[in-house]
Amino acid sequence: MTIFRGGVVARDLRMLFGANDRSVAAEEAFTNREAQWQAVVAALTDHLQRVASPSFDVEDLASPRHNVLVAHGIGGIGKSTFSRKIEASLIQSGERPSQWAAPGWPIERLLPVRIDLARSSGTDFERVVLSIRLAVAALGRPMPAFDLALRRHWDRNHPGEPLEEYLQRGGLLSRFSNAVNLPNQLQSSLADVAQALALPGTLGGAVGQLTTTLVSALRERRQTVRALAGCSRLADILEAEPDLETLSFASHLLAWDLAQLPPLQQVTPVVLFDSFEEVGDRTHRDFERLLQRIVWLMPNAFFVITGRDRLQWAEDGLQGQLDWTGPTAWPGLAGQVPGARTHGGPAVRQILVGDLSPEDCDDHLARRLAHNGQPLIGPDLRRAIADRSHGLPLYLDLAVGRFLEIRRNGRAPQPDDFGDFPALISRTLSDLTSDERHVLRSVSLLDAFSVPLATHVAGLTRDAAALRLTERPFIREDLTGLWPFHLHQVVRSAIRNAQDHTDDRWSAQDWHRAALRAHAALGQEWAHGPRRDRAVLIGVLRQGLRLARDFQLDDLGWLAEAAFSYVGDSVWEPLAPPAHGNDSAVLSTAADALVETLSVLARRQREHRARTVQRLTAVIDSGLLPTELQEMPVYYRAKALRDIGRPEDSRRGYQQVVDADGRLAQAARRGLAQAARLVGDFPTTLATAQTLGWEGRHQRVLGDLYWIQGEAQRAAEAYLAGRLEAEQHSKAGEAAHNQALRALALAFVEPLQADAELDLAAQLLAGLDLRATTINAAIASVIRDAGSTAVEERARTLRTELDVAGLTSMTPTLEIAVAFHQAVLDDREALNATIARLREQTSDGTFAYYTDIAHFMANLPLPTDHTPPRWLDGAEATRARWRSMVTARRDLVRPAAR
């Protein structure tokens, strides 16, 4: 939680000086990283066991290395804080966070040293090596093999500059309490070697002569230098040119020296390299190569590397750039653990420092600023900031700074004060190449992307920059997604919305050009991509509609064709919110009108059809849609008008679409055929159905016609043919609709078979948002159970659902199901009430034939003032079929009742 240094609470001076109010306490807050700490403990435990094994050989240069753990993550996620807390937890007098369990090994046998590799720290390779040696100086013993090489390097590269003066001037003396002892330990090492070689004193000028004599003695295997003779590579290093390359190899000598310590004095250095992303880039790896040598040549030391990026050492492609590469050399670096993109076994040593949980975000904000011991930021504001942070600690810190700034200006901070921070952009872009920054801004326009899509959107000719970008920690990967990559939400929001002050920032015109590229790329993805299925269609529509709307693209292009494909499947997945995120969409462009149209069509499954009519009318009246798309809202408004019981208005809409003879003309002709059916003109319906073909869904029209005639089996066959046609054309929604209606038809005559048909309908409806079809299936189940006790209550529930949905055109069908049940029970009183409801519901002439059917079921005479429909083969034949269905069900129900 709170960072302690030397037993004192670490104050956040930047925040402390951000307010005049001395009663405000500003503390650095550390938020629980328990899972990552457990990974460190597990890896370090494994390392200690390996080093303690009798088979371990510090001079083995061929065996795979397991002595490194990498913690990587987006800038501002808390990696440096995590590194500092690890160091503190491994120091005997340090403070370990209360949530972190104590390790199972003695802390005193560890020797931690944290090295900040950030450019601002001024760390070069010499300082890295000196820092490790200064940490080892705490043991109070010389490291003779390494010290000889270090002293030779120093004298050659820093002539006339004593090491102690350099340490004092460079600030290393203040960091390492034993730094003052290092020159003495080096001198002691030289003196011991000189004595073994029977040489006079070892003043600085004699180092060259000393090493020359020592190398000769080692080559001649003299007994006088048997203590160093066991270091088989000492002579080679002492003979080499004393430059940085040699100094990096000399780390092997330090590992050997440490291995010679008596068992009771054995220690394990734990070296923490922080800000590793700043040692170079993916092209220039000179510094990285030197650091990798230290890790490889000190197998008895454990290294914790924190940085923005995964360590690539396990990739074979780096052969030649680094000395040791590939999964065989670094088996633990070939994968990652919690939240990472690839998963390995328990030895995997790449961990992702991920986003904080909402609870940890709240805890962080509560502890950063306090007033009289209480959190200065209230719970509601903390919750709003945490929600917008998406778990990114950097966002939380920036929000705390903004909180103090607003408060300093005499105003109470509000949730709306915390949006996107420009600092997030500079922190994210800081270590990216120019091409990577270009790709990053380009893909911020997309919800998700692949490498080829990112390259296309960026307008580049090669994938290299996009490939490199996908390795960055602010890029998240979902292998199950249509496109596997997406930006961290806070980073994406900042790039898209915050004021960009970077040198290569984009102008409004740059963003517009990028939107045009993205729009075209999405169209290509749908038309010519590796997949061309419903998932791709929905994916490109969701992203393409938003781009066209947000950037007011004049040419909808491929969106028109995609929109027709979307409605043709009758599945109705949500595509986009209304143009401005509310029901009162402001329409000013063709894109606005198309977004609103498709949004209405998807939402009509969950809102009253009268609202659908209202919103589609607004689109039609705007006149913004191009001619080829204008028929879409007209057609679906006609369908909605039919659903809310306005058949004449519906018929006029259908006729308008037919007259335009566009993409939906056949569907509109089906609507006219259904309109004829609604008023009882069955011969016209039949004649029209036979001209519709697949595009007009002719089999469904026939099925709707036949079951009304009492020909349930014939209707079921038509619906089956309709379902098979839909499946051949990959129209999932149409297939589900036909299947639900097939179950409804069969429920009248074959209740047991209807059970299986309803099961299939449920399978086909899974994952689809088809409210009317789902209700049709529910009505089918009522018909299937006619004659049982639970029907009436279920019917009441369905009436309510139909009223809420505005699907009043389906209510008479439900009443026919209830009438069938009542006729089977011969409940004349209840049936008369149902007939009365039917007469009221069909008083405008639509569905009036349902009252005929209800009378036929109970073998009742029709009212004298009733106008019959035009039955296909006469009223008496139809009456006989309906009556026989009732009597057959009675015969089926009565034995079960007995």
Number of beta-strand segments: 12
Q: How would you sum up the major sheet?
A: 5 strands, parallel
Estimate what percentage of residues fall within beta strands.
5-15%
Structural class comes to mainly alpha
Shape: elongated
Share of residues in helices: 55-70%
Describe this structure in words.
Helix 5 crosses helix 8, helix 31 packs antiparallel against helix 32 and helix 38 runs parallel beside helix 40. It is elongated, with a radius of gyration of 39 Å. The N terminus is likely disordered. By secondary structure, the protein is mainly alpha-helical. The chain contains 41 helices and twelve strands. The chain starts with a strand and ends with a helix. The strands form four sheets. The chain has a five-stranded parallel sheet with strand order 5-6-7-4-8, with helices on both faces. The protein has a three-stranded antiparallel sheet with strand order 3-9-10. A hairpin with a 2-residue loop joins strand 9 and strand 10. The longest helix has 23 residues. Among the domains are: 86 residues, no CATH class; 202 residues, P-loop containing nucleotide triphosphate hydrolases (Rossmann fold), CATH 3.40.50.300; 118 residues, no CATH class; 216 residues.
